[in-house]
């Protein structure tokens, strides 16, 4: 099996990252925004893995483990917050939760 | 025995440390024992040292004691060293002796004051600073004591700090004397820069060797030192602080006027007499300042209604005599008058304090009257003090003032004028003293007096009265610490060649003043008011009452312009800079507030934009 070219992997990671970013910017549902953050994290992880295999170094995989842990923690905290917000405001619309303004 | 010299200043310091260290927790009964006791011990020690020193031959009356190196830099060093000769011994005895009596008196006077421990602590520090000033072997140490008495006078004049005017008087005394101190500091710098030594005796010797008489440098140095002396000793033109300094408790007035602060200037000039001898013009200026001051303040004393202010102007006038003596080269006469003045002025102030205490803090002499009967002890001691002040024959003041006036007469071309001014001042002294006595102690009783003093107050009065009478016999031989010049008047009354008719006139002058005072004030104050009815009488009275309008003048000349400048300078360039920073920050705040929308997605977009910017800078820059 021919190895996947490094450029392709990076391209995929970029596409995923931009997709996540765009979703974060245009969607108003908090859960969807959380999901898009996950997508961006995974895109970054993919880039690390690809780089690690390109240079034959384990660092990329270690970074990916770190990101995985981070994502898990983030989802845990994030979902907790979302639950509280929903209980208090009965909505998940991020634009309507704009009380903390100057 | 002489090796114990260091204890003389350090005993009062120990008293001060104990009193401040106890922070008011000390039982009140112990406070006067520590405060007065420490000064009493050092007075006793000073007396013992005097006996030992005076037993030596005149040329050998000299003792130096180096306690420690104060500062050292390369081969330059300043020692914490004391210098005891006849001059400093004389001052030592006056400061500790009169100071001790005032301390004892304070134990009675301040007995009801809640701040008694603080009071005694300040008093002890005052005595310590004055002793350092007197004993200093070098100029920096002298300056340390000099500033120390300034600080203590500030603390003590403003002792009753709840009253704003007391704080004002304290600040005034501090600032006005500071003007003189600046001149003096410059003088010390000049001496050090030119002579290369800070040791007083060494500096005087080098000055005499390096500078010809009348040279510019000697004149400048003497002038600058004179500036300091004029400030501390309340002479023209810096005398304005002293009458206001009456705001402090009466024992303070006695201490400042009699034994410590105001005599510092006289001591300084006597200590550096070699320098003044090199600058004849400045020395003449000293005499002229003294003569003018003694006349001006004599007239002012004539119009005051506050018993303490009468005495304050009288002090300025008497210090004027000392300056007159210094100016004509009668060094030992000046120190002699300083000593006798310490006796009778302390007596007068303490007597005034007893009167004030018995009248529940009434200080207006026109509301006293008839105290002769109700306060006999105070009356008789006060009479003695006034007699010495007026210089009636056979009191201590007579010998010292007589000596000064005879010396003044023999002092060159200006001599007769200086003598005339001094004699006119003697008439004035007789006049205002008689006024004070007749108005306050004779006539009808206007405020009922209840004697309110105990032996703590009575004993110092009696001792000081004896000293005021017999102090003329206690003249210390000051040679060789001070050169012998002019006419020395023996206490026996034998007069030199300058005696004769001049001596007779000098002796008669106070009697003239007393006689006029008696004629005017004999039957109450009515005839005095008749005098004021004369054309210009009221205007003159107001001028003299205000101390010749010096306060008014200084207000216009310095205080008001300074206040105006300060107000103008409130928004100066530096302030503008900081105000600008504040305004800029405010502006930025107002601009950035709208960006804080609280909308999550805008923040995310902002982060994206920022990250893109950083990346772009990283890639292309």
Descriptive overview:
The complex is a heterodimer of chains A (102) and B (621). With 102 residues, chain A is mostly helical. Chain A is built from three helices and no strands. Chain A has helices at residues 6-26, 30-55, 59-89. In chain A, helix 1 (6-26) packs antiparallel against helix 2 (30-55). Chain B is mostly helical and 621 residues long. Chain B contains 26 helices and two strands. Chain B has helices at 7-21, 31-54, 86-109, 116-135, 139-157, 164-195, 200-210, 216-232, 241-244, 250-259, 261-271, 273-278, 280-303, 307-327, 331-358, 371-374, 376-390, 396-409, 415-441, 455-470, 500-521, 526-533, 537-545, 550-568, 573-592, 600-620, and strands at 62-73, 76-85. A two-stranded antiparallel ribbon of chain B has the order 1-2. Classes of the chains: A mainly alpha (102), B mainly alpha (621). Chain A binds chain B through residues 21, 24-26, 28, 33, 94-95, 97-102, and chain B through 592-601, 604-605, 608.
Concise structural overview:
The complex is a heterodimer of chains A (102) and B (621). By secondary structure, chain A is mainly α.
Comma- or semicolon-separated keywords:
heterodimer; A: 102 residues; mainly alpha; 3 helices; B: 621 residues; two-stranded antiparallel sheet; 2 strands; 4% strand; globular
End-to-end Cα distance of chain A, whole Å, is: 58 Å
* Count of DSSP strands of chain B: 2
Question: What fraction strand of chain A?
Answer: under 5%
Residue ranges of chain B: pLDDT <50 for 5 or more in a row?
Answer: 487-498
Series of H and E elements of chain A: HHH
What's the total helix number of chain B? 26
What value does the average pLDDT of chain A take? 90
Hey, which two chains have the biggest interface? A-B, 14 and 13 residues
- Major sheet characteristics of chain B: 2 strands, antiparallel
Secondary-structure element series of chain B: HHEEHHHHHHHHHHHHHHHHHHHHHHHH
Shape of chain B: globular
Oligomer: heterodimer
- The residue-averaged pLDDT of chain B reads 84
Q: Runs of chain A with pLDDT <50, length 5+?
A: none
> How many E strands of chain A?
0
Structural class from helices and strands of chain B? mainly alpha
Q: Work out the helix count of chain A.
A: 3
Beta-strand portion of chain B reads under 5%
Largest sheet of chain A: none
Cα separation of the termini of chain B: 86 Å
How helix-rich are the residues of chain A, as a percent range? over 70%
């Amino acid at each position: 099996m021919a190895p996947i070219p490094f450029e392709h992997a990076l391209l995929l990671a970029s596409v995923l990252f931009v997709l996540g970013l765009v979703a974060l910017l245009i969607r108003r549902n908090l859960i969807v925004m959380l999901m898009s953050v996950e997508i961006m994290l995974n895109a970054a992880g993919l880039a690390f893995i690809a780089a690690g295999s390109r240079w034959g170094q384990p660092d990329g995989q270690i970074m990916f483990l770190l990101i995985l842990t981070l994502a898990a923690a983030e989802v845990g905290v994030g979902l907790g917050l979302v639950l509280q917000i929903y209980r208090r405001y009965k909505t998940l619309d991020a634009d309507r939760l704009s009380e903390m303004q100057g | 025995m002489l090796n114990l010299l260091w204890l003389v200043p350090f005993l009062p310091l120990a008293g001060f440390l104990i009193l401040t260290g106890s922070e008011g927790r000390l039982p009140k009964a112990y406070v006067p024992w520590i405060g007065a006791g420490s000064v009493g011990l050092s007075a006793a020690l000073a007396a013992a040292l005097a006996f030992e020193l005076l037993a030596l031959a005149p040329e050998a009356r000299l003792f130096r004691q180096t306690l420690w190196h104060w500062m050292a830099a390369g081969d330059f060093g300043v020692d914490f060293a004391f210098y005891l000769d006849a001059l400093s011994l004389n001052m030592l005895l006056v400061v500790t002796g009169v100071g001790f009596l005032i301390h004892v008196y304070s134990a009675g006077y301040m007995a009801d004051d809640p701040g008694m421990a603080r009071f005694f602590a300040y008093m002890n520090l005052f005595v310590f600073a004055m002793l350092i000033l007197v004993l200093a072997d070098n100029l920096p140490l002298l300056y340390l004591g000099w500033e120390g008495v300034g600080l203590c006078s500030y603390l003590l004049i403003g002792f009753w700090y709840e009253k704003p005017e007391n704080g004002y008087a304290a600040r005034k005394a501090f600032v006005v004397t500071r003007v003189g101190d600046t001149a003096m500091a410059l003088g010390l710098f000049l001496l050090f820069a030119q002579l290369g030594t800070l040791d007083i005796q060494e500096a005087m010797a080098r000055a005499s060797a390096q500078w010809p008489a009348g040279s510019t440098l000697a004149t400048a140095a003497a002038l600058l030192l004179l500036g300091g002396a004029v400030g501390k000793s309340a002479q023209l033109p810096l005398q304005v602080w002293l009458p206001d300094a009456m705001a402090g408790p009466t024992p303070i007035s006695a201490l400042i006027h009699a034994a410590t602060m105001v005599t510092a200037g006289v001591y300084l000039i006597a200590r550096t007499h070699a320098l003044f001898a090199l600058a004849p013009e400045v020395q003449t200026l000293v005499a002229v300042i003294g003569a003018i001051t003694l006349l001006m303040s004599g007239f002012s004393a004539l119009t005051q209604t506050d018993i303490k202010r009468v005495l304050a102007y009288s002090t300025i006038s008497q210090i004027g005599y000392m300056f007159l003596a210094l100016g004509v080269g009668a060094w030992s006469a000046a120190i002699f008058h300083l000593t006798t003045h310490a006796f009778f002025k302390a007596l007068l102030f303490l007597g005034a304090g007893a009167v004030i205490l018995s009248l529940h803090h009434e200080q207006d002499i026109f509301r006293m009257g008839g105290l002769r009967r109700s306060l006999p002890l105070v009356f008789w001691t006060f009479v003695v003090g006034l007699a010495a002040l007026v210089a009636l024959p056979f009191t201590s003041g007579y010998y010292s003032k007589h000596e000064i006036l005879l010396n003044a007469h023999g002092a060159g071309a200006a001599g007769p004028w200086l003598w005339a001014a001094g004699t006119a001042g003697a008439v004035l002294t007789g006049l205002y003293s008689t006024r004070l006595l007749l108005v306050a102690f004779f006539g009808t009783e206007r405020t009922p007096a209840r004697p309110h003093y105990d032996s703590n107050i009575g004993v110092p009065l009696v001792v000081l009265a004896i000293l005021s009478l017999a102090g003329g016999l206690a003249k210390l031989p000051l040679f060789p610490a001070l050169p012998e010049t002019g006419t020395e008047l023996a206490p026996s009354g034998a007069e030199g060649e300058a005696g004769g008719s001049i001596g007779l006139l000098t002796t008669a002058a106070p009697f003239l003043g007393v006689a006029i005072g008696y004629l005017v004030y004999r039957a109450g104050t009515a005839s005095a008011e008749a005098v004021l009815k004369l054309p210009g009488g009221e205007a003159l009275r107001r001028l003299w009452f205000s101390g010749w309008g010096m306060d008014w003048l200084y207000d216009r000349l310095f205080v008001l312009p300074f206040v105006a400048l300060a107000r103008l300078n409130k928004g100066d360039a530096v302030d503008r800079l900081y105000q600008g920073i504040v305004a800029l920050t405010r502006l930025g705040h107002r601009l950035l507030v709208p960006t804080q929308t609280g909308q999550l997605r805008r923040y995310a977009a902002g982060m994206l934009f920022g990250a893109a910017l950083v990346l772009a800078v990283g890639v292309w820059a």
